[in-house]
Amino acid sequence: QVQLVESGGGLVQAGGSLRLSCAASARTFSSYAMGWFRQAPGKDREFEATITWNSGSTNYGDSVKGRFTISRDNAKNTVYLQMNSLKPEDTAVYYCAAGWTTARMNYWGQGTQVTVSS
Questions:
Q1: Measured between alpha carbons, how far is 98 from 33 in angstroms, rounded to an integer?
Q2: CA distance 113 to 118
Q3: Can you tell me the distance from the alpha carbon of 93 to that of 83, in angstroms, rounded to the nearest whole number?
Q4: How far is CA 2 from CA 10, 16, 30, in A?
Q5: Coil, helix or strand for 29?
Q6: For residues 7-26, b (16+ Cβ closer than 10 Å) or e, as one string?
Q7: Is the pLDDT assigned to residue 97 strictly greater than 90?
Q8: 2, 48, 69, 102 - which has most CB atoms within 10 Å?
Q9: How far apart are CA 91 and CA 28, in angstroms?
Q10: Residue range 36-92, pLDDT digits in tens
């Protein structure tokens, strides 16, 4: 079982930046692929970014490519999402997830709200 706790959300003006963090409880954190997803009101959960266990590969959704960066620190059991050039349409609840592969996430955090004002 993996417990994930997100932090770093908040209110920011358009064009600003935020860094989300996700702390994981698993002793085997370094074995997991990690990802960030988001869900806006009235919309389905959307893929944002994934990273392999050794940071060897990252992948991004089209809407965030070039603006968001996923990274991880296995020594700290933490994954990050650096979000730059934020837009009002980035407003959503952001979820951290863990899985044995980037294609399938098995564990989810509770989410952190990000609100971007225009």
A1: 6
A2: 16
A3: 14
A4: 25, 32, 12
A5: helix
A6: ebbeebeeeeebebbbbbee
A7: yes
A8: 48
A9: 32
A10: 999 999 999 999 999 999 988 999 999 999 999 999 999 999 999 999 999 999 999
